[in-house]
Design brief:
By secondary structure, this protein is of the alpha/beta class. The protein has 11 helices and 9 strands. Strands 1, 2, 3, 4, 5, 6, 7, 8 and 9 form a 9-stranded mixed sheet that branches.
């Protein structure tokens, strides 16, 4: 049976670390190694990691004397890996039973496949932990991930489910230090150019969403999100040594989709009274696609109006509950 290395970067997630590591150690594959990398946390992460390493010989940990950031921490983990397959798992996420075996079986039987990914259950940390999960039939297919990401104008892979072939990871290299908000997206683009991708039609992980990271913070970060997505596409199409023959078509598709999304996000912000954010998003969109000055992508309009109506209803309900 295959060997799998799991790197768990941790920064102030000591309260989640035990559940995360337990979800790995309880997998049906026993030939695994786990490396916890504590990036100079100010909570109890170091103590929890030390305790987990002492309790199981498959677990080891590194503790940074000073914070070096998530990208350098990820790349430190990539330098460490040596098993057949590799997963980078955030300390606040969890694997579901059988996820490592499902992925490794596919790659064992299909040497051309360099990465598998699948679905997640989203767990918002203000609600009870999801104890009953319908994993699904876990069938799979080869996916044209590069085309799918260009058609979507962004990422299509949740990192917690991305189990990769270590030899391919070593060939591709580490995460891009100049893409702090889209380094994962840039990585999957490179894997999609490196070899075949398998999409597993089943739940592979539990992805935690933090309430504190939503709402106003999300709106403030929208422009940066679009800018970082564009930077990931820029980097890939300008530097990848393994571009497909239809790279020009894919690049145009990616920028067109990205511009359309930013355009209507900007319109939405204007309609909600957030003038400066709206104008900045529209400027971004029309810089990529100047034709949007004259021919806006009207098919998005219905979605935007429905979204605004829902937000208005939610605010009215919130005010009603407060009173």
């Amino acid at each position: 049976m295959a060997k799998v290395d799991i790197v768990i970067p941790c920064y102030n997630y000591g309260r989640f670390l035990q559940l995360c590591v337990n979800s790995v150690l309880s997998q049906s594959i026993s030939d695994i190694r786990v490396l916890i990398i504590d990036d100079s946390s100010s909570d109890n992460s170091h103590a929890v990691a030390k305790s987990l390493a002492a309790a199981d010989p498959r677990v080891s940990f590194i503790s940074h004397g000073k914070n070096i950031g998530h990208i350098r921490t990820y790349n430190e983990g990539i330098d460490w890996i040596e098993s057949d397959y590799f997963l980078l798992l955030s300390a606040d996420d969890l694997l579901v039973p059988g996820s490592l075996e499902r992925a490794s079986d596919i790659m064992d039987e299909n040497p051309d496949i360099v990465m598998t990914h699948g679905n997640v259950v989203e767990w918002y940390d203000h609600i009870p932990f999801p104890t009953e999960i319908n994993i699904g039939d876990c069938s799979w297919n080869r996916e044209d991930l590069l085309r799918a990401m260009c058609a979507a104008g962004g990422n299509r892979v949740v990192t917690a489910t991305a189990i990769v072939r270590t030899s391919a990871q070593k060939s591709i290299g580490g995460y891009e230090i100049d893409l702090p908000h889209s380094a994962d997206m840039a990585m999957w683009l490179r894997f999609a150019a490196e070899g075949s991708i398998a999409r597993i039609h089943g739940v592979q992980a539990i992805y935690r969403r933090h309430v504190s990271n939503m709402s106003a913070f999300y709106y403030a970060e929208q422009l940066r999100d679009y800018e970082q997505r564009k930077a990931a596409f820029d980097k890939f199409f300008r530097t990848s040594p393994k571009l497909p023959s239809n790279a020009v078509e894919l690049e145009q598709q990616a920028y067109r989709k990205l511009a359309e999304q930013a355009y209507w996000t900007g319109v939405k912000q204007l309609l909600l009274g957030r003038a400066s954010r709206g104008r900045a998003l529209l400027d971004f969109a029309t810089e990529i696609a100047p034709h949007l000055y004259y021919f806006p992508p009207l098919r998005y309009l219905g979605k935007i109006l429905v979204s605004i109506a829902r937000e208005a209803a939610s605010r009215r309900l919130s005010r009603s509950n407060e009173s």
